[in-house]
Amino acid sequence: MEKKSIFFENNGGSIAMRYEMLPSEELDDAVLERLRTNIPDGIAMTQYSEADARRIIYAYIPSSVQLSAFLKKQLSKAEVLTIIKNLLTSLDIGKFSIPVSYVVKDLDYVYIEEQSLKTFSFMIPVKGQVMEISEIPDFLRTVVSYMKFREEDKDNYVAKILTNINSDRFSINDLNVMISEMLLEVGDAMQPMQPQGMAKVDKLGVMRNRVVPPTPQVVQQPFDPQMQQ
């Protein structure tokens, strides 16, 4: 697979990427059929066509921007973690019996929805692609190196992520577990935020400060024997 054979088309409402197969390349029909019936999360909808002796693999992506362009903005901790988790999902496709070597691991060929942070990776199911062991961690290191982090995030979460990626025993699953745990601590980037100016209600405090009306007291009158006559 040669990246120079990948072309982009911006149709306004969607992005189309297409790959023109070389004469010597063989299409993986089994994987293509799986992609038609069950598209893994994080993978763009992939299709195939033949016309005028040209064999083309193409994908349509909802309106979004290239990840390389999106990462130029400052990101919160929750946004960083959400993006990495979504990318890991697109790489964890072995459970679908799809080689991860088919996924194009390049910031210019990954698109992201700016609001949801959902990512779309381009997959080229061509047999015989060889992937180096370091290709996935190298890609993830590149992603992190392009990110711009907000100054208010003072903890060392980025260092922890890089330590995991640089591990000799790196695995997608281990990094995914760590990212998921971090997200549980900070909350997902897409959770609706509480409007400013609205203070959280302290229910316990309300209960303690609630005014309880006094119980009516029965006033006993002194006994007058003459009242009984």
Summarize the structure.
With 229 residues, the protein is α+β, with helices and mostly antiparallel strands. The chain has seven helices and nine strands, in the order ββαβββαβαββαβααα. It has helices spanning 29-37, 67-70, 77-91, 135-146, 157-165, 172-186, 203-209; strands at residues 6-10, 14-20, 45-51, 54-62, 65-66, 74-75, 110-112, 119-121, 148-149.
Would you mind describing this structure in some detail?
The structure is a single chain. The chain has 229 residues and is α+β, with helices and mostly antiparallel strands. The chain has a single domain (3-186), classed as Orthogonal Bundle (Transferase(Phosphotransferase), domain 1). The protein has helices at 29-37, 67-70, 77-91, 135-146, 157-165, 172-186, 203-209; strands at residues 6-10, 14-20, 45-51, 54-62, 65-66, 74-75, 110-112, 119-121, 148-149. It is globular, with a radius of gyration of 29 Å. It starts with 5 loop residues before the first strand and ends in a 20-residue tail after the last helix.
Features of the shown structure:
disordered C terminus, Transferase(Phosphotransferase), domain 1, 17% strand, 229 residues, four-stranded antiparallel β-sheet, 31% helix, 7 helices, alpha+beta, globular, three-stranded antiparallel β-sheet
